[in-house]
Amino acid sequence: GTQAVVWDNENGLQVYGLEGDTLGNLLTTLTRFSNNTAIRYSPDGNLLAFGGPRTNVEIWDTQTWTQVARLPNEGAGLAFSPDGHTLAVTISWDIQLWDVETLLEG
Fold first, then answer.
1. What percentage of the chain carries pLDDT values higher than 70?
2. Among candidates 46, 43, 44, 42, which has minimal Cα distance to 62?
3. How far apart are alpha carbons 91 and 63 in whole angstroms?
4. Which of 14, 25, 86, 93 is the most buried (most CB within 10 A)?
5. Coil vs helix vs strand at 46
6. What residues contact 46, with CB distance under 8 A and at least 6 apart?
7. Please, which contacts does 84-92 make with residues 24 or more away whose CB atoms are closer than 8 Å?
8. By the 8 A CB rule, do 47 and 61 touch?
C-alpha cells in the first residue's frame, strides 16, 4: 500500500499508511534520533533506508518492519539506483556505492 514517512520531534521517525489524502494507521516508529535527514524507499518499495550526518544508515524491510542492514558509517544523502541493486551514500565530500544484496546478506 501507500505509505508516508513523518518526522515528529516528540515521537521520532514514524511510518503511516495513507488513506486517500490523509494519514491512516501508524505502521511503525523506526527511531527517535533527530539527525535522520535522508530517507529513501527502494524503487520496489520493499526497503526503506535512512540516515543522517551523525546517524548511521539503516535499511528496513517495509513488509515486516525489521532492520535488515546497518552501514558502518553515517550518510547525509541517500539514493537507490533505478534497479534497486545499489545504494549511493554521501558522506562529507565522498560518495560510497553499496551493493544492496550484499548488505542484506549481512
1. 93
2. 46
3. 28
4. 14
5. coil
6. 61, 62, 63
7. 84/42, 84/43, 84/44, 84/47, 87/49, 87/57, 87/59, 89/51, 89/57
8. yes
DSSP secondary structure string for all residues of 3-37: EEEEEETTTEEEEEEEETTEEEEEEEEEE--TT--
Which residues are CB-neighbours of 68 under 8 A, at least 6 positions away? Answer: 47, 59, 60, 61, 103, 104
Mind listing the pLDDT tens digit for each residue in 4-56? 888 777 777 888 888 887 888 888 887 766 666 788 999 999 999 988 877 88
What is the distance between the alpha carbons of residues 36 and 103, in angstroms, rounded to a whole number? 20
How does DSSP classify residue 73? E
pLDDT of residue 33: 62
Supply the DSSP symbol for 84.
S
